[in-house]
Structures are given as structure tokens and as C-alpha cells.
Design a protein that fits this description.
2 domains, 6% strand
Length: 72
């Protein structure tokens, strides 16, 4: 189904360009400029700090209690 370097109505070069463009859009995990990123919740940040050892268990429990009280 090709006639003189044309494949289904497009030149082979255009097929390559479209395939590379689609690969670039869907396969390369790059943050899009201007895209809003999901921010972590305060409780999630607190859990990460506790897991990293930045705060003690007493600090964690106290701050968790404060955060859960603010939600209610």
C-alpha cells in the first residue's frame, strides 16, 4: 500500500516525526512547566519527618494531636 515513498498518505519521514512526538509526550517522565504539583498534607509531612528521625515520638504524637484537632 505504498506509492513512491508514501505510506497511507504520509511520507515515511512524517511517520517517524509523529512516532517520536508521541513517544516524547507519553514516555518521557518530565514535569510540564506551569503544571501544578500536588502539595503534601501537613499530616503527611509530619509522618515523613518522623520516619526520617527528625522529630521524637513525643513531638510526633503532640503535633499529630494538634493537627487532628484542627481538622475536626
Amino acid at each position: 500500500m505504498f506509492y513512491e515513498n508514501y505510506y497511507w498518505g504520509m511520507n515515511l519521514v512524517w511517520w517517524i516525526i509523529w512516532i517520536l512526538l508521541l513517544f516524547w509526550i507519553f514516555a518521557i517522565p518530565v514535569a510540564i512547566p506551569g503544571q501544578r504539583k500536588r502539595s503534601d498534607s501537613p499530616i503527611h509531612i509530619l509522618q515523613k519527618r518522623y520516619a526520617a528521625g527528625e522529630i521524637t515520638t513525643d513531638d510526633y504524637m503532640e503535633k499529630k494531636k494538634i493537627l487532628s484537632h484542627d481538622k475536626a
